[in-house]
Design brief:
The chain is an alpha+beta fold. The protein is built from 1 helix and 9 strands; from the N terminus they run H-E-E-E-E-E-E-E-E-E. The chain is 17% helix and 54% strand.
Length: 138
């Protein structure tokens, strides 16, 4: 009888702890859009379907031919690796394929700037990597 009560208590404690950890990530869950000017440049999707924070990052590649305005020529999806939300900061890594065929791991940082707004920056992509505004979809 004591084992049964212990098992039920342990299960309740374990599921309660998982629920508490999940709620800390709830404000990040959603679809975040990045635009430079009026052009989409990336899409960050975040969910807790597995009980942990996870998602994808879709990076759009822009091209500008001569005098034309920049336009999307390709979209490159990536699965988030090791996402960690710590208050107003979210960090994660993605595996990227370079045009030369090499694989690299890129580290990103997302910082909340206001309700429903944040910035995203590839912190391992060099000094000229832009900081881009994200807006959470409704």
């Amino acid at each position: 009888m004591n084992r049964k009560i212990f098992a039920i208590a342990w299960f309740a404690l374990a599921t309660g702890a998982a629920g508490g950890a999940q709620s800390a990530n709830d404000s990040w869950v959603g679809i975040w859009h990045a635009n430079v000017g009026a052009r989409p440049t990336s899409l960050l999707t975040l969910a807790t379907d597995t009980g942990k924070l996870g998602g994808t990052l879709v990076l759009d590649m822009l091209c500008c031919d001569g005098d034309q305005t920049p336009h999307v020529i390709a979209s490159d999806p990536h699965l988030l690796m090791d996402p960690v939300a710590d208050g107003k900061t979210l960090t994660f890594r993605v595996r990227m394929h370079r045009p030369d065929g090499a694989n690299v791991i890129a580290s990103f940082e997302v910082k909340r700037t206001a309700p429903g707004k944040a910035t995203i920056h590839c912190v391992s992509c060099g000094a000229d990597a832009p900081v881009v505004e994200l807006v959470k979809g409704r």
